[in-house]
Amino acid sequence: MSKRRRTSSITSKSQEDDSLDSLEASTSSGPTMRKRKRHQDPVELIQQLYDMVRNHKKKDGSLLCDTFIRIPKRRQEPGYYDVVSNPIDLLKVQQKLRTDEYENVDELQSDIELLVNNTKSFYKRTSQEHKDASELWELFISTKNNSTTAAIKNFSS
Length: 157
Prior knowledge:
Layout: H1 10-27, H2 42-55, H3 80-83, H4 90-98, H5 105-122, H6 128-156
Helix pairs in contact: 2-4, 2-6, 5-6
């Protein structure tokens, strides 16, 4: 019976792992093969979506989210609270992120949608705030769909 010697070199270790993986792949059948792809954590995806919304710049170089960071103050826009029954801003979304209140992407989407709908219901269709809200929603949905598609591809491969 021959003894295998332990190698301390990192390259030897990786070569050993590669040969073990190829041996395992050649002897296993179908779906029982070990997968080494990293799956994206929903919390990580939520943070990436928020960061994208928070850091996206418009064509003029200003941040798209400037309008949505804080809700209007009662003294400045008293009519806002007559129109909007459930106000939310990006600071509230950020607070929920920090306290791990979002369990999935749909909960974040719900808050972003509320923010966008609040803005659209208060501001006129021709206002910059209304246009920014529409752009923010389109950006969020397209990024979410692209991220979800990529996560599904990583999961299934």
